[in-house]
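Researcher: I'd like a candidate sequence for this fold, 124 residues long. If you have to choose between options at a position, lean toward the conservative one.
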């Protein structure tokens, strides 16, 4: 990563390029006051927006931060899972016991193989 000195150099270079851009493209020589006013209005709007969003975030953090409303869902039984997937309970239990299961790809829905497929034996 960039060290601290590299960050200072990069920041200085980008500030220089930004000032050069403003001088060449945004600054109207005959209307210096109007350009300065536009820059100050832009800075003001950005500051008000930052304060509003920062205040809103702080309000939400204080108001809703200490709440602990999240609860883990209860465990699903094999019967509920079988009903949700429209398969017999025995199939769900067999799939849960197997170490390896492959599902054939079908676009019409879940297709459960007849027997779980165990991984092939590993030979050293």
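Model: Candidate sequence:
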């Amino acid at each position: 990563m960039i060290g601290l000195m590299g960050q200072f150099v990069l920041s200085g270079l980008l500030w220089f390029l930004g000032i050069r851009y403003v001088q060449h493209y945004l600054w109207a020589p005959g209307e210096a006051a109007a350009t300065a006013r536009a820059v100050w209005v832009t800075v003001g709007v950005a500051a008000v927006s930052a304060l509003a969003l920062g205040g809103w975030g702080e309000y939400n953090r204080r108001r809703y931060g200490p709440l602990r409303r999240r609860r883990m869902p209860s465990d699903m039984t094999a019967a509920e899972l079988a009903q949700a997937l429209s398969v017999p309970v025995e199939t769900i239990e067999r799939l849960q016991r197997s170490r390896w299961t492959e599902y054939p790809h079908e676009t019409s829905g879940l297709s459960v193989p007849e027997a779980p497929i165990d991984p092939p034996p590993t030979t050293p």
